[in-house]
Design a protein that fits this description.
Elements (H helix, E strand, L loop, with lengths): L13 H25 L5 E5 L5 E5 L4 H19 L4 H27 L9 H71 L28 H4 L15 H8 L1
Antiparallel strand pairs: 1-2
Length: 248
């Protein structure tokens, strides 16, 4: 007689169930590998044991890539199979999910600022603390990076201003040297210039005539031969003290 068909049902014996799981799991992983190699197919296999242990297998492409491809295909397939009444029903199903997600995000925000911490367990508080520590490290890293960039930029500006200042100082020094050189040359030219001497003046005998000439009463000694003194003209304007000396 041939081998009868085995009825598929849950194995009640715990040990037998565990042994059967190990054998069938190995055979399933082997078959997945064979079909991926023989048929050049992308295969992703995920198995969870009764204790929640994960067993997986994927081809050369990563598990995430295969799952993303499956989700895109499943979404496109659902879009093609939609009828006119299904979009409204779909949105009716999506609305509670979106509301729940918004509430979760709002609660997380309150937890991040230190509010509504009473409902959280010890493990959740530890997870929140770790997330905040990680966020603080990222913030400090970014802050230090910006500070370093700012310091570097200020140093560049300082060097540029210093160079401009040096150029201005050198220009000022050259202008001062040029000005002093011009003044020194002008002083030398002024010291070498000889002023011309005035021409000599011929000094004649002083005029003894004051207020008019003297007239002889009886002529001169040469013509008259007499010894007469010269009498001053009555019309001459002589001071009285000079007249007294003249009469003596």
């Amino acid at each position: 007689m041939g081998r009868g068909r085995i009825q598929l049902k849950r194995i009640e014996n715990k040990i037998s169930r565990q042994v059967t799981f190990s054998k069938r799991r190995s055979g399933l992983l082997k078959k997945a590998h064979e079909i991926s190699v023989l048929c050049d197919a992308e295969v992703a296999l995920i198995v969870f044991s009764t204790k929640g242990k994960l067993f997986e297998y994927s081809t050369d492409s990563s598990m995430e890539r295969i799952i993303e491809r499956y989700e895109r295909y499943s979404y496109a397939e659902k879009r093609l199979n939609m009828t006119e009444d299904e979009p409204q029903e779909k949105w009716n199903l999506e609305f509670p999910k979106l509301v729940a997600r918004i509430e979760l995000l709002q609660r997380n925000i309150r937890n991040y600022v230190g509010e509504d911490l009473e409902p959280l367990s010890l493990r959740e508080l530890q997870s929140l603390e770790q997330q905040l520590d990680t966020a603080l490290k990222r913030i400090r890293t970014r802050k230090n990076q910006l500070m370093q960039e700012s310091i570097s930029e200020l140093q560049k500006k300082e060097r540029s201003l210093q160079e401009q200042n040096n150029l201005l100082v050198m220009k000022q020094v050259k202008e001062n040297e040029k000005h002093h050189h011009g003044q020194h040359t002008h002083q030398q030219n002024s010291s070498n210039f000889v002023f011309p001497r005035p021409p000599p003046q011929t000094l004649g005998p002083p005029s003894l005539t004051i207020g008019g000439g003297f007239e002889s009463a009886g002529g001169t000694n040469e013509q008259g031969g007499g010894d007469h003194r010269a009498i001053p003209n009555s019309t001459s304007l002589m001071p009285p003290w000079l007249l007294r000396h003249a009469n003596q």
